[in-house]
Amino acid sequence: MLGAIAGDIIGSVYEKNPVKSVSFPLFQENSRFTDDTVLTVAIADSLLNDRSFEDTVRDYACKYPFAGYGGTFIKWMTRIITGPYNSWGNGSAMRVSPVGFAYEQLPEVMQVAEASAEITHNHPEGIKGAKAVAAAVYLARSGFGKPLIKDHIQRVFGYDLEMTLADIRPSYAFDVSCQGSVPQSILAFLESTNWESAVRNAISLGGDADTMASIAGAIAEAFYGGVPVEIEKEVMSRIPEEFQAIISAFYKEYPWLD
Question: Which run of H or of E encompasses 230?
Fold first, then answer.
């Protein structure tokens, strides 16, 4: 899940200032964690401490209320809306990566990923996006190669991964839907050569940069065996100590590299 958090922080400055290149500074003075990080940590905390997804996600969101949530999610977190709101947005996919690291069987990953999504994003596309990302993380950390990961995502979830980043980059624009950002984020991973290039690929599309880099970064972490040490150090300096503690406890409880 550290890969998701690192991608979020790196992408945070490029959401409103999009780039169409893989050449850009990884960290700037105002690079910061956003809602992607807050809710990813919330899902990890929920898994670690056997708390409900709904309660934990809401608690974290209310504790960090200015992290950049969408308008409908804000109504949900403040209980103006009391149940799921049929969202197909990529908020379900951006927070799900801990699920892909925590379970040993793919059916269980799928079941828990759906449960993590449907507290807010109970639209079929919102659920599908979360399940696709969790599946990609699980397959990547389980030793599957990119061709098998690609085949599984296309066959099970129906996402088109035959396009290339070079083909879609010129016309791609900001899109917060799962269907309009999850396959592109997975493609950014598939075309990568290491963790950093996956994140650079995702941001270079010029879309929802923090979320897409978070998704690509999570899958790349699982596939390449972690996040580069120098990037991890920079990330840790930009997140609260309580987030650091959850990350440490999560990897201790779920030592997926062993």
Answer: helix 229-236
